[in-house]
Recover the amino acids of this structure.
């Protein structure tokens, strides 16, 4: 009897881990950013921004990319599809990108989706990657490669 319960619990835990990794993510922006509302950004632009290679927006505002820690299970898909590198290399990249930028980091790592949305809303020039269900009206959703989250073909779809 105990073994059956243990097996049932293990199956439920393994199933929920798979669901956590299969989240749909969205790119959100500070509402004052100069990102084109109709076209958004290309995947190549997102890669450059997320790696700290975009120092300023066309309007001169400094850019900041806000994300959860690379070790968070929900970020696994983003690391694979955007960074195309393992967690340890992304952590090193974040440290390198922020070196010498103490007042305005290139990449800001936060502890929760709620904190991420609040940071993006409060920092001019900020863009972040967040679970779609954490989005609220304080930020703007950005198209990636012409698609919005939950549209077929969206690059940050969890499955």
């Amino acid at each position: 009897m105990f073994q059956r319960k243990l097996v049932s619990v293990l199956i439920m835990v393994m199933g929920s881990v798979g669901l956590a990794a299969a989240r749909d993510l969205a790119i959100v922006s500070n509402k004052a950013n100069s990102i084109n509302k109709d076209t958004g950004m290309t995947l190549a632009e997102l890669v450059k921004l997320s790696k700290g290679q975009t120092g300023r927006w066309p309007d001169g505002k400094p850019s900041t990319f806000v994300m959860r820690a690379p070790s968070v299970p929900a970020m696994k898909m983003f690391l694979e599809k955007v960074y195309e590198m393992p967690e340890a290399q992304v952590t090193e990249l974040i440290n390198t990108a922020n070196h010498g930028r103490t007042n305005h980091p290139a990449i800001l790592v936060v502890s929760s989706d709620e904190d991420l949305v609040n940071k993006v809303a409060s920092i001019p020039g900020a863009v972040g990657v967040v679970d779609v269900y954490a989005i609220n009206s304080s930020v703007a959703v950005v198209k990636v490669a012409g698609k919005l989250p939950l549209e077929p073909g969206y690059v940050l779809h969890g499955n």
